[in-house]
Amino acid sequence: MAATVLTCESCDGTIGGVRNRFPTRRGTQRATISDVAAAAGVSKATVSKFLGDKGYYISAETRERIAAAVRELEFQPNAIAQGLSNRRSNTVGVIVASITNPFYPELIAGVEEVIGESEYTLLLGSTDGRPAKEADLVRSMLQRQVDGLIMAAVTMEDEAVARLVESDVDVVLASRALDATPADTVVIDNVLGARLAVEHLLGHGHRRVAHLAGPLNVVPFRLRRDGYLEALRSAGLDVDERLVCDATTESGAAAAMTAVLAVPDPPTAVFVANDRMAIAVLEFCAARGIRVPADLAVVGFDNIWVGRLSGVGLTSVDSRARAVGRTAAQTLARRMRARHADQSVVAPPERVVLRPDLVVRRSCGCESTENDDDEIVPLFF
Amino acid sequence: MAATVLTCESCDGTIGGVRNRFPTRRGTQRATISDVAAAAGVSKATVSKFLGDKGYYISAETRERIAAAVRELEFQPNAIAQGLSNRRSNTVGVIVASITNPFYPELIAGVEEVIGESEYTLLLGSTDGRPAKEADLVRSMLQRQVDGLIMAAVTMEDEAVARLVESDVDVVLASRALDATPADTVVIDNVLGARLAVEHLLGHGHRRVAHLAGPLNVVPFRLRRDGYLEALRSAGLDVDERLVCDATTESGAAAAMTAVLAVPDPPTAVFVANDRMAIAVLEFCAARGIRVPADLAVVGFDNIWVGRLSGVGLTSVDSRARAVGRTAAQTLARRMRARHADQSVVAPPERVVLRPDLVVRRSCGCESTENDDDEIVPLFF
DNA sequence: GTGAAAGCGCTAACAA
DNA sequence: TTGTTAGCGCTTTCAC
Predict the structure, then answer these.
(1) In the complex, which nucleotide's C1' lies nearest to the CA atom of residue B60?
(2) Is the CB of residue B25 inside 7 Å of nucleic acid strand C?
(3) Tens of pLDDT, residues B345-354
(4) What pTM value is reported for the model?
């Protein structure tokens, strides 16, 4: 049972003449290491050694007495206090652009897969693509002394990111690399991914391929557009500026598509910079009676799970969210371990580039070749 | 610029005869309140007062000097230290069953919507439906001194939850209510939701309605099954046990459906306990050439966004994930505020029951009536 | 083997 | 208006 502090009427809430800042609080106070020490009849230091089991010698008898006290008082070490003393919080921050875009939960799950095994806990933040919120989150996480930070959403200026990377937290970028500053990075090859997509469409015989881009101040989107351009040029095709546009919302996507399709000699295919937009395009087509892929072939990017549903059948470039998350977490873990063990030798930054794959389904004009791998994942949760 | 600690060769890393535990660390040390105090030529206390701006009087001049020092040193208060001193971490934990089930990100987004405005940060955990992991997460969050906890996944024993609720953290249950112990709770009426679903199917003339249930040790799933049974009974129909079954994975769902459809006088409709499973059923039907809704009408539960895609068209009971998250966060915020302000008066626990709605689309046999509300949400992130 | 003491960075009560 | 001081709960050094 935890130490219960009773409301003590005779007591004036004073300790050594100085008023206690936290007189009597409602409920049950948590036991502290001092309580345990007192109960076991030893010093705090001994209890601490016992708890840390870092190879200190403690007599079997003392050991047993402490264990009993811990059990009795249901003692749980206060991680905040430990953190202050150790100068580490055992906590890693993960900043994503949007928790409701299925890409990110997948990435987070990858991070959890590896971090969850350790003693670390995840501090999560979602920026909704708002740079201000991103800055806020970074600040707040640094103040909370995260030991490491995975940034899967960076709209910040390169320079700000660089400052962060050079600070004394370990940072892994999981969305874009930095040109000037070397930093641990795990990304996919966005240019290649886009080329894969566009080349596939060209392979189907399309010559007028549009591109629905994301906001070009976000690096991966810019790279995807670059890949699109490259693919066209390598095929000896001219780029028609009117076929490249971006949109911000569902209705915006519809408007953009309307505009693109109104161009003389309209596109017969479109490469969309991410699946959420691609799906919006699919919906747009369904509503307008535009047949996919007969009238318009569509390829997306990210390969979120929705795309594989038989009613959707979206061909998409797999951006390996889970693998990115996993790799980023591994890189971070290695980094943190190194810092913990040794304070001077710094390994050079790692830059992992994962290879995206094109997952072919119906929307590009192929027969769905996919051998839909039955997931062994529980469906309830 | 932050205070840089240079590697000082002449210095023996000793302070007052006692060896410093953290000699010289790589990189830039963060400035502390003492650094600021020194730089501004005032005491720590004054700096603290300045930072907290809790209406302490500080001369304009001092104020300016401190501000300058803060700026100069890029001082960021250490939230861990603040937490230790204040006995609060300004952090709230959110435990969900699965981050990759779209229901939960939606709930989390709701929580963020209201918590994000405040100074609190989210500590996130996903249990994957594993009770052991759930227990671990709770422990770890308590050790990290979360000020509040939102539990959107409870497989724990009632009694354990009750102990938690009676502890000195504020807890809001967002998935099930407790029978014995009063506790802040935000849930939807699962029984009603299930009735809505089944009654709708009965309204379509179905008389043989199957139920694909979730694991019945999880309260909401049990309640949904109860609602299913109630609806049948109120309609004067017999319950055929063979039409009620559960499954664990995608292939399991397929097996369950195969079994159910093999029963003599097979069902013409099925009410599925959540959308992930319902979608698995839809996929199953598509693969087998079973037409939905002609051969089999399907209604799910949760109304995850995927259902509204034109290629899916899943009729489903909206479980108001976002609203639940938002409400839970508001309740929690109120609770934490109260605790912060006053330590004795305890408001009675709130129990909010949200009303689920049936969202009608094609899979039940209706013409899709849905007026698909263009979201004004950005599609990129 | 065990304990006393100092200190992690911050806050608040009280004195000046 | 500002400073002194005593913690918050824990870890580690160093002395016993």
Answers:
(1) D1
(2) no
(3) 788 999 999 9
(4) 0.93
